[in-house]
Every structure is written in C-alpha cells, then in structure tokens.
Design goal:
The protein is of the alpha+beta class. It has two domains: 119 residues, Immunoglobulin-like (Sandwich); 32 residues. The protein has three helices and ten strands; from the N terminus they run H-E-E-E-E-E-H-E-E-E-E-E-H.
Length: 174
Amino acid sequence: MDAYLSFGSSDMSASTAPAAWVSALNGGYISTNAQYVTYPVPGAGAEANKYGFSSGAPHLKADGTLNTGFFKVFFPTAMVDYMWGFDGTSVLSFKSDITDSDGGSSTTSIASTVKAGGLLVEKAGISYSTNDIQLSVQTFAPSMSKIGASIMVALLAFIILWVVSRKRLSRSIF
C-alpha cells in the first residue's frame, strides 16, 4: 500500500477576510484527507456567524467506490470569541452545512471537543467531489430547569395570595 503525505501552511496574507478575523484565526487549522482545501472565510451580512471553506477530491476511488473523507477544524479561543461570543473553554454544538458540486446538501450537528487553546470540530463520512462547507455555532432557545419552574410557580402562588389578601383587607376597612 502506498501512503502519501502533503501539507501546506499560509500566513493568510492573501485572504480577503477582515484583518481582525485573520488575527483571531491565528493558531487555527483545517485538516482533511481532501486533495485541496481553500482559505477559510467568514460569512457576510446575516451569515457573518459562519466559517466557510471548500474542499475536494475525486468523487470515486480507483476501484469505483465512493470516495469519502473527513475534516477537522481547530478554532482558537480568540476565534470562538470573535465569531460567536463564547470563551472556547466549554463544548459547543456546531451546525455543519455541506453543499456538493451537484447542488446536493446536508446539515448535521457536531459537538466540538475542548482542546488546549480552543475547540476542535471533526466530521467524518463526507463524500467528495467538491464541497462548500460552512460551520456555525448552534443556538438553542433557553429552557427552564425543574428548579427554575418550581421557583416560578411558588412566586406566582405568592403573588396571587398577596393580591387576594389585599382585596380582603381593603373590604374589611370599608
């Protein structure tokens, strides 16, 4: 079996991303078994909370089977704070939107892993040709715990009792 290794590095000086974004990305990386990967870029406008890049490899392996792969993206804590306002020291759930060259798309949820200096997002089982990949932190509607709900019920009961007692007190005075 032949094995090959290639790698690249960039100072991002040719990036079209804002300088503050590039600075926050210092120490970040994209790792993949794709044959090419593009510079990462931030989303724009309403999509500003998305981190995007493209990757690609032949659609089929030499034996005719589907070529599948992976990516790993490391977000330094500065990037996690810059893009999503979190400190990067706790697990976040990321939404992965992958669009292939034929226009097909898939959306999945990926739990990050806390590593020294940031968060690692890993996705395996992606199929190749050319993929546009966007990652964003998933936000969920706040939920109330059982304790919080109990406190709210007790507070509401207290308010109702107070209102009822005030009405009785006002009737007895007049």
